[in-house]
């Protein structure tokens, strides 16, 4: 769960779970989906909080979770 703020349009968007895609809608196209933050210019995006710790050192636990996500996405489509 990540909350980001778009400094261009002052919108605050929160991704509630890893399939929750939220975008601010302005020209910067700030978006957040799970742990992924993006937009045309990252300088306009501020991450408000990170309740979850960065799992950078735990690559072994991250891999199976990504695989699971893909299977669910295929199922929906
Ligand atoms: Zn915006």
Radius of gyration: 14 Å
Q: Give helix and strand order, one letter per element, not per position.
A: EEEEEEH
- List ligands, each type once: zinc ion
Strand content: 25-35%
Proportion in helices: 10-25%
Overall form: globular
SS class = alpha+beta
Q: Roughly how many Å apart are the termini?
A: 23 Å
Number of domains: 1
Weakly predicted, low-confidence segments: none
The biggest sheet, with number of strands, parallel, antiparallel or mixed sense and barrel status, is:
3 strands, antiparallel
Q: Count of helical segments?
A: 1
Q: Give, in spatial order, the strands making up the sheet with the most strands.
A: 2-1-6
DSSP strand tally: 6
**What is the averaged pLDDT score?**
82
Summarize the structure.
The protein has one helix at residues 59-76; strands at 2-6, 11-15, 21-23, 31-33, 36-38, 45-49.
Describe the model.
The chain is of the alpha+beta class. It contains one helix and six strands. The protein has one helix at 59-76, and strands at residues 2-6, 11-15, 21-23, 31-33, 36-38, 45-49. Strands 2-1-6 form a three-stranded antiparallel β-sheet, with no helix packed on it. The longest helix is centred in the C-terminal third of the chain and has 18 residues, at 59-76. The structure holds zinc ion. Zinc ion binds next to loops.
């Amino acid at each position: 769960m990540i909350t980001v703020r778009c400094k261009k349009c002052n919108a605050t968007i929160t991704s509630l779970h890893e399939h929750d895609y939220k975008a601010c809608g302005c020209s910067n196209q700030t978006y957040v989906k799970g742990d992924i933050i993006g937009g045309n210019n990252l300088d306009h995006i501020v991450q408000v909080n990170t309740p979850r710790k960065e799992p950078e050192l735990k690559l072994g636990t991250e891999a199976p979770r990504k695989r699971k996500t893909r299977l669910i996405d295929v199922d929906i489509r």
